């Protein structure tokens, strides 16, 4: 047994020494450092395809974003939603648009329900606006800001007691009739 173990170790060492000779090309000397082959890796292929699709020149062909064209395209998308009878169009109509820079804008909503409707349509809206505005670098964000105008308290409906008191102020005979008939009102 003792003799067999060193032989196994020697075989492993021999295999390890022989391995570099298999990797080297027949014309090159077997050395520890190998030169990379001239094959294009998968990542390089993807990079070349991306460049050849015209995306490298997309930066030059993009039109800068302005509020007028953005609002017009936004209205066109709302019309498209109305034609499809999509209930999200109401949220799009209530939203406000604000241009941040030449490739970015912000959609301002007044509550999270409107925000969720816009977020649901985000992918379709994004591709639609990129085509309409001719800007492949287009970006947008959706934020919530409470409108002060909409948060003003609306007059609550009057209770039955308040309705009766208001009616008696306008028409004192109603109170007189109630007293003569000895009516008790359930408020």
Give a verbal description of the structure.
55% of the residues lie in helices and 10% in strands. Helix 4 crosses helix 7 and helix 8 packs across helix 9. Among the domains are: 78 residues, GMP Synthetase, Chain A, domain 3, CATH 3.30.300; 34 residues, no CATH class. It contains nine helices and three strands. About 6% of the residues have low confidence.
CATH class category of the domain at 67-144: Alpha Beta
Helix content: 55-70%
Rg calc: 38 Å
* Largest beta sheet: strand ordering: 1-2-3
Structural class, by secondary structure, is mainly alpha
Number of strands: 3
- Taking pLDDT < 50 over at least 5 consecutive residues as the criterion, the unreliable ranges are 8-13, 15-19
Indicate the CATH topology of the domain at 67-144: GMP Synthetase, Chain A, domain 3
Please give the count of helices. Answer: 9
**What is the N-to-C order of secondary-structure elements (H for helix, E for strand)?**
HHHHHEEHHEHH
Broad shape: rod-shaped
Q: What is the average per-residue confidence, as pLDDT, rounded to a whole number?
A: 78
CATH architecture of the domain at 67-144: 2-Layer Sandwich
Distance between the termini: 105 Å
Percent of residues in β-strands: 5-15%
Outline the biggest β-sheet. 3 strands, mixed
Task: For this entry, give a set of tags.
187 residues; mainly alpha; GMP Synthetase, Chain A, domain 3; three-stranded mixed β-sheet; 9 helices; 3 strands
